[in-house]
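Schema walk-through. Below, the input block comes first and the output block second. Nothing else is stored per chain. Lengths vary across the set, and this one has 329 residues.
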Amino acid sequence: WDKREKFEIYEDLKKINHRVVVAVPPENFLKTNQSLFPLSGISNSQTINCNENGYYSINKSDRYGFNNPDEEWDKKNIEYVLIGDSYGHGACVNRPNDIGSQLREISNKSVINLSYTANGPLLEYATLREYFKPNFKKIIWLYYEGNDLDDLSYELNIPLLKNYLIDKHFSQNLYSNQDKIDEFSKKQINSILNYKKKLDKKDVLKYKILKFLRLNNTKKILRKKSFVDTKNLEKILIKVKKMSIENNVKFYFVYLPDYYRYKNEERYNENYKSIKKMVNKLNLNFIDIHRDLFAKKEEPLTLFPFQLPGHFNKKAYREISEILYQFTK
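--- output ---
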């Protein structure tokens, strides 16, 4: 088990490869006031993500900073475009064990993965708007029940992001601004690295304890919630549906379950029913990963690393990809 902190492995690998970076999620820029808001990571770089399986997942980003083989962008037709958060991004596994890579292998079709860690529905919609191409055939929207609605409530407070909801023509032209995205993200990495270097050992321990407590308190708050308003998510999905119809693209809404559902399902049932009702109302293609995979397992927690809280393991990503393919082929 690699016990190093993410930035420790970053400094170690940087000595032998200058194209190594740390994943910088778009949410890192939610509190900044810069003129451009990145919606992807650093381009063409070995990107360190997370460790839940004993090793840090490291995948080379494409020309726009996403988790794809770069040549996918040159394909004549893109069969699938994935949009989601860390579960779509591929945390915490290496290629080819993420959903995008598995779907690429199973279908023998091209896949562009626009997901990024910590994204909520508004960041996802903005990303789809910025990077959508006319050769996309199917949109697979990955909804995560653990925190997507909470992320959305926070994202709606960001004026620049709200522009994507207000103005259908709004764009930051991120296609042609990757140099700036790389620059802003590298500044974020250096800023965090410099901060960590200033901490002495007592401060480091205090930092880790506070981080752990904040994380657990947040999870407790999220798990106590019995209902969250879905109206703003519905507005976004209506826009995505319209976008897909106008471009002759098939649109699929995928429901991903949270680890804690299988510890206490009652806490999630109300939101689960609300989301299903909304999706049916919008007449969307609905793929229920909870019902079609996890609920069928005698021990659903075996689909998580070491049956502990976290993202899915390789087995789960594979089985999810097989369900997506069967539903969409």
